[in-house]
């Protein structure tokens, strides 16, 4: 897979100066090389896009042997967004971001005390769920592009200040090293996927802190 810096990305740059600490890459107005496939990172808004994201999640979870409860999120719910990554027209990655609300967040199920400590005056807690990347596209730059989009949306649209994610402990080191997360919740078994999990958190300041 080619380096993602060569791809043409259509995600709007929402927080140029506040969120990014590195020089921005090519904007959507910059032409990509002729032989570089187009990378589009954007919210899934149509039924077809949302269905494709759900299908990718089911396929990747099944491949890993995870159980997956039905997605009960409503597309029109302003507290949730599903973001997709399309490479040359094919969906290759997706994640859902959710903002804390009266119904709480999924992480409350296993980490009630840890989540309670995160909530406070002027804090807006958000979480990432239903993360899936196609087996043929495990390029770190692609995952970085997806999380960059999640960060931008959560900060600009949700007003989020804190981000949490439940991950398999085998993958926790990667999120700590490359994305600035810290582990705040110990090893548990997540009943939604019937797999081990730890809770990671990061404050939404500069992505490359």
For this entry, give a set of tags.
single chain; 209 residues; alpha+beta; seven-stranded mixed β-sheet; 5 helices; 7 strands; 28% helix
Helix fraction by DSSP (H/I, runs of at least 4): 25-40%
Please state roughly what percent of the residues sit in beta strands, choosing from under 5%, 5-15%, 15-25%, 25-35%, 35-45% or over 45%: 25-35%
Classification by helices and strands: alpha+beta
Order of helices and strands: HEHEEHEHEHEE
CA distance, first residue to last residue: 27 Å
The main sheet comes to:
7 strands, mixed
SS field, number of helical segments: 5
Mass-distribution shape: globular
Give the beta-strand count: 7
Residue-averaged pLDDT: 81
Sheet with the most strands: spatial strand order: 1-2-3-4-5-7-6
Indicate the low-confidence ranges by residue numbers: 1-34
Rg computed from alpha carbons, rounded to a whole number of angstroms: 17 Å
């Amino acid at each position: 897979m080619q380096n993602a810096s060569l791809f043409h990305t259509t995600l709007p740059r929402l927080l140029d100066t506040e969120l990014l600490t590195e020089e921005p890459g090519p904007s959507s107005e910059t032409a990509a090389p002729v032989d570089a496939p187009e990378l589009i990172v954007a919210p899934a808004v149509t039924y077809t896009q949302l269905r494709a994201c759900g299908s990718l999640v089911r396929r990747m979870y099944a491949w890993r042997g995870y159980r997956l409860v039905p997605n009960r999120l409503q597309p029109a719910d302003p507290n949730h967004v599903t973001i997709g990554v399309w490479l040359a027209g094919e969906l290759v990655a997706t994640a859902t971001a959710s903002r804390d609300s009266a119904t709480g967040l999924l992480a409350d199920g296993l980490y009630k005390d840890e989540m309670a400590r995160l909530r406070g005056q002027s804090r807006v807690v958000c979480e990432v769920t239903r993360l899936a990347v196609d087996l043929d596209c495990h390029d770190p730059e692609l995952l970085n592009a997806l999380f960059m989009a999640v960060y931008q949306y959560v900060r600009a649209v949700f007003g989020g200040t804190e981000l949490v994610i439940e991950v398999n402990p085998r993958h926790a080191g990667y999120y700590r090293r490359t994305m600035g997360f810290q582990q705040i919740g110990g090893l548990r078994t997540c009943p939604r996927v019937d797999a081990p999990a730890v809770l990671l958190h990061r404050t939404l300041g500069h992505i490359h802190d």
